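hey
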């Protein structure tokens, strides 16, 4: 199996992804990402962080994180102190010394005494609750008013709304408002529109992928993306965008834009 760092670096370079983009997307500092690619494990905070960063970076590059994490565990992770502690059998071969049993008689006596005291207190409390007595000794119960109250009405609780799952794929269609050069690359790095010119009024078919990168020769394009329409910004020169699920189009850096559909 290729080295862990080599796999990460080659995948990122093959997809033409800058390290600053990975840092912004994964929230992992660039120096830690470089340490992963160079397998400089001592520069990372610890094994737990190594596995967490490795899993996050692999998922961003659409690699299998389980394979990379398992490869790291087998090759680099050291066994814990508990794993290195040998089991110590009973070398004496004889019976283990039993602890002497404490007599339970005093505890039983104390328990019975507590029960008797509790019973006496309970009877005294019941006597104090008897109705008041007059001079002849006959009890006259004190009438008490009983308030009747209606049980509280059950209030209907609205049904919990199910939270919509975040979209994982992007649907994209480009329509030319004038003649324009188009280069469109999907999440796998495949150029689905490989440097072609769209004439005014012409449209591409609707493409679907986890993300897209597009390089436009000018702003004469309307992007139908995620059910909404976005016109390209008119900056008087070529422009590029990155399109991801649930997010607005993001301007590409010039170095990334010019690398798309490069001949």
């Amino acid at each position: 199996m290729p080295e862990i760092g080599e796999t990460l670096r080659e995948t990122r370079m093959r997809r033409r992804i800058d390290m600053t983009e990975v840092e912004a997307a994964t929230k992992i500092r660039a120096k830690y990402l470089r340490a992963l690619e160079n397998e400089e494990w001592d520069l990372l905070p610890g094994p737990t962080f190594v596995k967490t960063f490795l899993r996050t970076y692999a998922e961003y590059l659409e690699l299998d994180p389980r394979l990379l994490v398992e490869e790291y565990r087998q090759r680099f992770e050291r066994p814990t102190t508990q794993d290195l502690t040998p089991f110590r059998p009973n070398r004496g071969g004889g019976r283990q010394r039993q602890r002497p049993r404490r007599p339970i008689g005093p505890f039983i006596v104390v328990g019975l005494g507590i029960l008797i005291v509790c019973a006496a207190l309970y009877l005294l409390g019941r006597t104090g609750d008897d109705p008041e007595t007059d001079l002849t000794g006959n009890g006259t119960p004190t009438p008490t008013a009983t308030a009747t109250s209606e049980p509280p009405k059950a209030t209907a609780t609205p049904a919990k709304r199910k939270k919509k799952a975040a979209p994982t794929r992007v649907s994209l269609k480009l329509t030319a408002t004038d003649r324009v050069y188009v280069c469109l690359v999907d999440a796998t790095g495949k150029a689905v529109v490989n440097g072609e010119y769209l004439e005014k009024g012409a449209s591409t078919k609707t493409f679907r992928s986890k993300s897209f990168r597009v390089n436009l020769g000018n702003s004469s394009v309307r992007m139908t993306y995620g059910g909404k329409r976005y016109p390209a910004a008119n900056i008087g020169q070529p422009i590029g965008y990155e399109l991801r699920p649930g997010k607005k189009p993001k301007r590409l850096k010039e170095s990334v834009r010019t690398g798309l559909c490069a001949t």
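The longest helix spans residues 105-128. Confidence is low (pLDDT under 50) at residues 81-96, 129-148.
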